[in-house]
Amino acid sequence: MTIAPFVSADAIRTMFSGAMSDMYKSEVPQYAALSELVADINGEALAKDPELETRLKQAGEFDRLGAERHGAIRVGRPEELSTIRRLFAVMGMAPVGYYDLSSAGVPVHSTAFRPVGDEALRRNPFRIFASLLRLDLIEDFELRREAAAILARRNIFTPRCLELLALFEGRGGLDEAQAREFASEAVATFRWRNEATVSAEVYHNLRDAHPLIADVVCFKGPHINHLTLQTLDIDAVQLAMSARNMNPKAIIEGPPRRNRAILLRQTSFKALPEPIVFKGTNGSIEAGTHAARFGEVEQRGVALTAKGRALYDRLLAAANASVRVASDGSNSAAYVETLRRQFEAFPDAAAALRDEELAFFRYSPTAESLRHAGAPSLPREMAGLAQAGYVRIDPIVYEDFLPVSAAGIFQSNLGDAGQRNFTAGASRKAFEAALGSAVLDEMELYAVAEARSRVASLNALGLGAEPERQGLIG
Question: What is the value of pTM for the model shown?
Answer without folding.
Answer: 0.89
